[in-house]
Amino acid sequence: MNKTIYFGLLFVFLAFIQVFVLSNILFLGYVNPYLYIIFVFLYPLKKNRVTFLLIAFMLGLTIDLFSDSGGIHAFAILFIAYLRLFFAKVFFRKFENDYPFFKLSLEPFGKKFNYVVTLTVIHHFILFSFTNFSFQNISHVLLNTLYSSLFTLILYFLGTYIFSKKQ
Amino acid sequence: MQQLIYFFQKFKYFLFFLLLQLLALTLTFNNLNFHKSKYVNSANKITGGIYEQVSNISDYFALKALNEELVEENKRLINFLQQKKEIPFSLDSTVVDTTRYHQKYTFLSAKIINNNYANAFNFLTIDKGEKDGLGKEMAVVNGKGIVGIIDNTSSNYARVQSILNKNSRLNARLKNGYFGTLKWNGLDYNVLQLSDIPRQAPVNIGDTIETGGKSTIFPEGVLIGTVLKVDSKNSVDKIIDVKLFNDMSAIGSVYVIKNLHKKEIKSLENPVNE
Question: B31: which chain A residues are within 8 Å (Cβ-Cβ)?
């Protein structure tokens, strides 16, 4: 399938499933997964980052529009979208020349795990800090980050396990 | 000049990133400001329309609960009517009730199409807007109690700042007349905090809290909840926990209250300086 159409559909699908399904789960009253950030993991690494940053920002803003949170999701997802290349360098030792051949699904599980967990936790921490918007209830922020990260990561790894093509 | 261009070229991604982050931050700050949240909110045509479609389907699952709620409300109102009939002296003499403020309200029914209650700053979306005469700073209630205040409208939808929003402030009172400010600390969506109640006020667990009528938004005497916990130390910053009658996680139909005298009251309170 054409790459542009594929990521266009992925954008719409992630936004919809986040807004209408995942944001309404509220496990134990407040724990939600934020699975839309897998867009950042799936989008191919490129040297020219303007398009990618813009799309990530738009995805965050779409979620914000629906959940009345101003620009919180846009801020958080843009942050990890920008840091992505840095962590690709740290965990996978991938530099600019390797970007066209990089595929997350082909990387060893340990490295992939580190990469995904780091970005997810950063995103969730920013998200909940801004949602809380004060220095009170910091324990609340940390707990939320922990639980939601777990939820998101379980969904992500289950998803990749189910949808990955069998060798 | 050469160096400037070189600088931009070297840091173009970072600068682009900063620009977008700044934009997101601006939107975030504006969103928390009652009078500035204009662009990014769920009361616009697209998000409002989509939410309405989805809630049209999901509403069927709540029909039973909604019916029970309506019966409950009807029961309360019928009892209220009966009580009015039983007061004998009001039939043969004129009663001038001076404790009631001279306020006039109209009620409009609306449906909630999007409900948030798990964040620190929550908003709801309803399916009526400017076309139905709604505007900013109108009260939203349902049969069991208060829900919020409208903070943004489009032609067909309106966004309601829920009482479960750290920015919400509400005038509330005990049944015996002592009044204070009702806020939310962002933790439990069933429990609100009542502060500024005078020290001498007798407060017991289980007392009913209602709106105070000291604002132009809420009418007097709309139910809020019951006292759950009273701070043991009797200090100035005594805080009373109030358990809502409403279950904010399961509300469907609401009424929007429009104060017909608001303009008059406002112009009296804030006269134009000459």
Answer: 68-71
Query: Contact at 8 Å (CB) between B167 and B35?
Result: no
Query: Closest chain B residue to A26 measured between Cα atoms?
Result: B118
Residue of B143, B174, B172 whose CA lies nearest to B252: B143
* Chain B contact set for A49 (CB, 8 A): 13, 16
A128 touches chain B (CB under 8 A): no
Rounded to 5 degrees, φ, ψ at B126 are -120, 160
HSE value, Cβ hemisphere, 13 Å, CA-based, for B95:
10
Closest CA relative to residue B227, chosen from B247, B244, B246: B244
Point out the least confidently predicted range of A60-74, A141-155, B93-107, B225-239.
B93-107
Tokens encoding A156: 């992500």
CA atoms within 13 A on the CB side of A70: 28
Q: In whole angstroms, what is the distance from residue B159 CA to residue A66 CA?
A: 11
ipTM, two decimals, is 0.85
This model's pTM is above 0.90: no
Question: Where do we find the tokens 């944001």?
Answer: A23
